[in-house]
Amino acid sequence: MVEHSFGGPWTEIKLDAVEYYLQCYTKALKRVKFDLTYIDAFAGTGTRDIEKRVGGLFEGAPIETIKQTLAGSARRAIAVRPPFDHFVFIEKDDLRCSALAEIQPENTAIDIRIIPGEANEVLRKLVGEQPWVRKDNSNSRGVVFLDPYALHVDWETLIALASTRVFDVWYLFPIRDTIRQLAHNFEGIGPKEPMLDRLLGPEWRELYSIAPEEILKRDLFDQPVEPEMRRVVSVRQFEQWLKQRLEKEFKFVSEPLPLLTAPTRQAFSLFLGVSNPSRPAIDLAQKFVRYVNKNFGPEASHRKSGL
Ligand SMILES: C[S@@+](CC[C@H](N)C(=O)[O-])C[C@H]1O[C@@H](n2cnc3c(N)ncnc32)[C@H](O)[C@@H]1O
């Protein structure tokens, strides 16, 4: 048994939201006999271990902390009905991969492929293969879930997924960690530039400019001071900037679902990007995602995560 503890109450909201979408998705697309694949690119072990406090006055039992194992995204996806036709689970960590492999003998009738490796490399290779190189008469469709711990998804990978015209992509974007890397002054970024290029593409530099008051600044000897480039966006504006960047690649991008790790602390933005250009596909995705954002959005987050 490989233990995998991560996240918090917001993790269940995220998994509920994506699972809800998967349910709507297979229900609608199976009616039209599409061949459906689910790809979990940061699959973990298939389960999530948590510690939970139980008991207390109202339960009439002593307070204690118990361990619980919950289904992670891979196991939740397998349980969706009607089912996907194919599953691809990608995981970099060998131990977690071996835990994932336990899913196969439990589900022998299902086509499950477990690929050990780095998610960006594997995904970019996969989407270049059949059936993802879409032909107009292809009936392959799929959902990709990008659920990294940290800043692990490359912009190039998103471009590759968007170019398939086949995949709907759920992307858990770590907005809080990213904003921390985007220093207030451009000078402060230093060696993080290549990492930000990989994560956001080179366009992130648009987030910096010279404030008007900087241009007029003078030193003690009344000499002009080299003006500083400052980050000119708030977290909210950055989130909208990112949405617009994604819209340049995907045919539709949802309003992000904010995931809070404390009442006023948004750690993640969960986006859906639809690569399929067909109007019915976009209409369907928009309809489903409206429900997702309504049921799992900030008001519901507070309630369901118990924050
Ligand atoms: C947040 S966990 C995923 C949890 C999973 N979605 C679930 O609900 O059970 C992130 C996983 O991604 C794996 N990982 C991290 N970086 C990776 C990479 N570059 N490529 C593939 N897997 C990676 C970690 O080992 C970890 O198991």
Walk me through what this model shows:
- With 307 residues, the chain is of the alpha/beta class.
- The protein has one domain (9-180, 234-305): Vaccinia Virus protein VP39 (Rossmann fold).
- It is built from twelve helices and twelve strands.
- It has helices at 9-30, 73-78, 94-101, 103-106, 119-126, 155-162, 175-181, 193-200, 212-215, 235-249, 279-296, 298-305; strands at residues 35-40, 47-56, 61-71, 86-91, 111-116, 140-146, 167-173, 208-210, 229-231, 252-253, 257-262, 265-274.
- The strands form three sheets. Strands 1, 4, 5, 6, 7, 10, 11 and 12 form an eight-stranded mixed sheet that branches. Strands 2-3 form a two-stranded antiparallel ribbon.
- Strand 6 (140-146), helix 6 (155-162) and strand 7 (167-173) form a beta-alpha-beta unit.
- Helix 5 runs parallel beside helix 6 and helix 11 (279-296) crosses helix 12.
- The longest helix is centred in the N-terminal third of the chain and has 22 residues, at 9-30.
- It is globular and about 80 Å long.
- S-adenosylmethionine is lined by residues 6, 15, 42-44, 48, 72-73, 90-93, 96, 118-119, 147-149, 152.
Number of domains: 1
Supply the CATH superfamily name. Answer: Vaccinia Virus protein VP39
Share of residues in strands? 25-35%
User: In sequence order, what are the helices and strands, one letter per element?
Assistant: HEEEHEHHEHEHEHHEHEHEEEHH
| Average predicted confidence as pLDDT | 91
- Ligand kinds: S-adenosylmethionine
* CATH topology grouping: Rossmann fold
- Helix amount: 25-40%
What profile does the largest beta sheet have? 8 strands, mixed
How many β-strand stretches?
A: 12
Low-confidence stretches: none
The CATH class name reads Alpha Beta
Number of continuous helical runs: 12
